[in-house]
Sequence to fold (477 residues):
Amino acid sequence: MGRRPLSIQLDAQLRAAVLSGRLGPGARLPATRQLALELGLSRLTVQNTYEQLVAEGFLTSVTGSGTFAADIAPENLSPKRPAPARPAVAPEVRLSRRGQAISRTWAATRVAETRAFRPSVPAPELFPMAAWSRLWAKALRRLGPDLFGYGRAGGYPPLRAAIAEHLSNARGVNCDPEQVIVTAGSQQSFALSALALLDPSDLAWSEDPGHTAGRDVLTALGISVVPVPIDDEGLSVSEGRRHGGIPRLIFVTPSHQHPLGVTMSLRRRLELLRFAQRSGAWILEDDYDSEFRYSGRPLPALQGLDGAARVIYAGTFSKVLYPSLRVGYLVVPHGLVEPFCTAQTVLSQGISTLPQVVLADFMGEGRFAAHIRRMRVAYGERQKLLVAALEKHAAGLIQVDPTDAGMHLTAWLPEGTDDLHAARALWHGGIEAIPLSIYAQRPYPRAGLLLGFTAVTPEAIEPKVKQLAAILRKSRP
Fold:
């Protein structure tokens, strides 16, 4: 009868017999003792199966008379043959307008597998696993019943305090712990911001080329996303004003523009803040990888310059620690704390308590700051190795310059190259590189690839670059 337990097979076969009409309404089933002997099962197993199917309405039981097949809409069942396992013609699938918008995004391309040179992935072998495991075990012992609850709105208070202290010291963010809202990563941060502040069809400015994840969330929620070009100072406010209408929200990555790597100048930051104050727009600042700067101190956040409470600041631990942790945070003006916490409760009933406790202890012991310092050194070295290997093995195929921040390089391809074609060829050859064109809402004049260097070990960088170069040469039209 197959490898599944006989009790499960009995249950499945009786259900199928009733649904298909093989056991017609009122058909009497064998007594439990008789069926148990025939099938080699215990009588208790047969009794339990009958009782479960009676409880679910497949069978009926009459004391003193026996067990019978229930009358389940016989006009919809065929008495001659079982119903097919699947319909001959698949039913039409009609998505909502929102569902159609989601299906057109690049979200499905974000797979779990990590290859060289996937951007924005931290080095797993450098993670302080021993210390993290110790804190995890300590938190499990300490939490007790609190582990099983939904957790507090806004997040675990000690973690909110630790994040506020870190942001004040390292990013120049002006906030107190009450303004910090712990989220399930950046995407939830973006969704909360849009749900609380925007109506469908509201306008949002987005950098072009720009962050696909943020744009996808806004699109999925019915927001009209207006592409605003990037120049050497960051998002062009003047171009936005000329062609973008009056936005309700402006989505920016000022510290290290994603994907081009431009740092927004102070002049442009002040211009953006003045425009937001005059127009009543909110600025959503995504500070996704600003901890990693390889020359000098990280630049202060845009939020630290905001004197009118128009900036919502988003950060994540996915890039610093590991993506599956799924912990990020928002810093919002005081007047938005309660609405954002309520919106988060509607979405997810808060964030799992245990990882928040572990992370708060990790930060409180100074291990988070130490880990960042260690990663800066390691990632800076890996970037240098990648640049040197590309210059040595991919000359004429790729033009790349070092960057003083971030976790990826923008690799420019020769004129006339299709970066989507190049990325597909690399993927089939075992290499991942993200085509620059997917970040652009309007055609971008140059073709390029994003090459991440942080998750590739130093000894693997040159061999992987050789492999990349060979694939690109072979895939040339």
User: Anything to note?
Assistant: The domain at 6-76 is CATH 1.10.10.10 (Arc Repressor Mutant, subunit A). Residues 389 and 463 are 9 Å apart (CA to CA). The mean pLDDT is 89.
